[in-house]
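Form 7-S
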Amino acid sequence: MRPLWLHFPNDPKAVECGDQYLWGKSVLVAPVVEKGATTRRVYLPASDWYDFWTGERLEGGREISRPVDLETMPLYVRAGSIVPLGPVKQFVDEKVDGPLSISIYPGADASFLLYEDDGISFNYRKGDWTGIQMTWNDARRTLHLQLANGSRMLSPEPRPIVAQLAKATRSVMFKGEPVEVPF
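Output:
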């Protein structure tokens, strides 16, 4: 959790905003804390943002009013972000069969390093870890995947990945070699 002022120190409204925060550097969280609230005022700092739930693209640098209910917390993802979403694991040793699912939010170039190790030992010190470097080129509308320096493929090998950009979905089998995924 990061306060808005950490990433937007020159934005007075972001600096004084105490009831929102960033999850990482890409996801803006606006908790609803008012009993019986049906709307929530949300400040979106300068940038383009996507409503996580609807996919609607919004211009930042302004305050918006968003309808709310008990089931949906307002979440906004900054344009130029890659967000891993699954598969969901409830605990470290849980075996999951599903592919790695990522969402791409266009509007700027983006990069993300997905780090994985066994979660139970110190074997990462011996090089037993996988880093998948993901790079989004917004102008070319391509996702580039490659192993991060110093990492190697761990089980499961190869790794199925499903990338989503708006309504377009691409599936790729990542085997440790660089691969381009066009959208």
